[in-house]
## 1
Amino acid sequence: QEHPSVTLFREYLRIKTVHPTPDYYGAAAFLKSAAEKKGLKYQTHECVAGKPVVILTWEGSDPTLPSILLNSHIDVVPVEESKWSTDPFGAHKDENGNIYARGSQDMKCVGIQHLEAVDRLKQAGYKPLRTVHISFVPDEEIGGKDGMEKFVKTSEFAALNVGFALDEGLANPGETCMTYYGERSAWWIVAETTGPTGHGSQLFKDTAVDRLLKFLQKYHDWRQVESARLHEEGNPKGLKLGDVTTVNINMFKAGAFSPDGLSWQTNIIPSSAKAAIDMRIAPTVDLVVFEKELNEWADKHGVKLTILQCMRSNPVTSTDASQSPWWATFQDVCKDQSIKPELAIFPAATDSRFVRAAGIPAIGFSPMNHTPVLLHDHNEYLNERTFLKGIDFFTELVKRLTGLQKHNLDK
Ligand code: ZN
């Protein structure tokens, strides 16, 4: 006899919400039917046609109080089917209770855990003081541009009156549960230079490559400093990847290549050069100062900058229990449920960054300890007992968060 929450989870995993053509309407229909069965209010909002944000709501006894948002993304990343031992959309469960499917860790598990936690409280006759919204958003796996990034700017989002949000974390093979209170700010930059061209035997001043290398040197130096901090012998400061800034110069272009890219025209000084840098800036860096210096440095070396992506505001969520009743509650529930949260800055990006930038505290948490990190990997799986234990945790957490009286962080 399978637990009904596990059955629901496996049904959700079988819906092919995989890029590049996620079945968003299939997922919305599934969630609508679940909402009807559980007596939750169902609504959708499309910031971009064909990409619904689904919101299920359980209203509290005082709907004027800021609400709790339980967010997950509907979409999953593509699979290399030949590398999987079972159908990645079959949700096969083996004799140990491991459920194999794309999205089993990232993050359909959390979406169903949120839903089942609310349902359990409802079944038990609990009456929440605050309203709780369970949101399912599109496109997180392709940057969130048409999903959470747009949604947080709508009047529909404002109407949810969110005071505190939960979103995804990562699995951990160890005992602790990773708990993310911030993210790094991703800056993707293209630097372009021009200069005199001519025969490769000349010694012109300020060639395109000269200028580009001088510009890049500063960021390469920063990379060396951060790398030394992260890889310091014995890691005395206990730094994780999210605590440092990463700088990777990932693309270069200069010179006269043949159209097939195979011939080397080494005797022409190129008239232009460009490079692309991927920087993930730690929350401890002042982004205003960083951007000012970036522009000054580019001007100094005659570099034209194109910013492909950036985040100019990158607040972190308070983890000071004396200041934040949200965090104090989270911490208390972890203690009661014998869960050990391990605080960290998320090394990549999630939808939490848009929520935090909108001024709302958010914690990234997927209760998956003793679980290998398999997101985006072949044979992604989650054990059903870990999944069910996560529902126990969220049930208690949602109960306590929605029961919180008006406090200092309520607007
Ligand atoms: Zn995810």
## 2
Amino acid sequence: MTSRTCLSIILAAGEGTRMKSATPKVLHQIACLPMVAHVSRAAERAGAEAVALVVGHGGDAVRKAAEGFAPKAEIFVQAERLGTAHAVLAARQAIAKGHDDILVMFGDTPLVEADSLELARQKLAEGAAVVVIGFRPPNPAGYGRLIEKNGRLAAIREDKDCSDEERKIGFCNAGLMAISGAHALKLLDQVGNTNAKGEFYLTDIVEIADKAGLAVIATEASFESVLGINNRAELAEAEAIWQNRRRRQAMLEGATLIAPETVYFSHDTEIATDVLVEPNVWFGPGVRVATGAVIHAFSHLEGAHVGPRAEVGPYARLRPGAELHEKAKVGNFCEVKKATVEKGAKVNHLAYIGDARVGAGANIGAGTITCNYDGFSKFFTDIGEGAFIGSNSSLVAPIVIGARAYVASGSVITEEVPEDALAFGRARQKTLPGKGKELRERFASAAAAKKAVAK
Ligand code: UD1
Ligand code: MG
């Protein structure tokens, strides 16, 4: 969009006591990503290149988390909670650097859309000094009301400070504001705290700017997109809204979801075209699914890459580092962790493949286990291409099974199996003709003798 520079200030000092949690409110997650990270992503998408994060209670945890989602963010501490304007001024140093646009956002409003922020920035570019993002909640109680006079936005009145007339206004402050960098500090420094809560209200800059003859305007965003989260019930509502948006996007981008309401995505899930996802599938963080793949019902995937036309499940678990190449199959009740299943290889039933490579076209029989852990360290299993592992085998790592080798069912394999070899790792079967009949007769007469004694 514009070449104007932009700083986003994210207020993350919320106490969040109603979450009843040891975790700071803004670190609670939506789609496996902290709420405050969603806010910072939206700001980034709207072109904010600098981020100032204002933390308070639980600040250390938020600071640490920020290293992951916004490594370049500057962190400021608001030691005392004296109001939203006071919180913004905690980032005074960042504001003083002279950005063109400043976006003020709340860390507990995770569904905010970049479009709303872009629109607000555009209004700044057109000459507004302050842009307030408004919305019309079903019940305005508790929100600041947007007071318009002669078609101008003249003030925001907090619920507690409203007259009865003002309280009837349905157009409310969502809490998001865009402020022209050229005016920001001058406006913020004039905010006082003579109001019902005795706080320094950010919202007061509207009246201050209007009185100074600066242009102040309101834009409107949807109720859903500015939902503020205060407890876990609202957290779940926001999750549901996020998931519905993402499911719709996945379908519009060419994936088939048979029962979309039962499929859960993470913030970073990548689904290609012509992927089929059956009901009740969970995508944890870091999953990529290539074109034509099928994820059958009740599968759980995390940190996994599923190749083109590969098949997963039903009831499969792919853990971090699972790499399925083209047309690979991981079937029911199988778990794959940190392992590559190469082109066309099959792990179809009841198997555990961890720290391993399964070569192209190999077949892993039902009940096969890679014994990768001795209680202290992990070891690697390398299965060559075209190998056949008979059912119910234990491959004790570190171990190499050569290409095209056969492992007999029920084997415990502890030594390397060379290419094209056949390995038995079990006792040989012994069959004694007629011995079964003899045994049955012996058992029957012993039981009869016992009964006769008892009488
Ligand atoms: C605020 C707005 C109100 C708006 C509503 C939308 C003000 C004065 N009021 O009211 O107009 O309708 O949000 O939800 O801005 N915070 C700090 N430090 C503080 C105080 C607050 O960091 O000293 C943070 C909070 O963590 C929160 C945000 O600022 O993320 C808003 O504060 P909150 O107390 O929830 O304000 P509301 O009364 O909801
Ligand atoms: Mg609030």
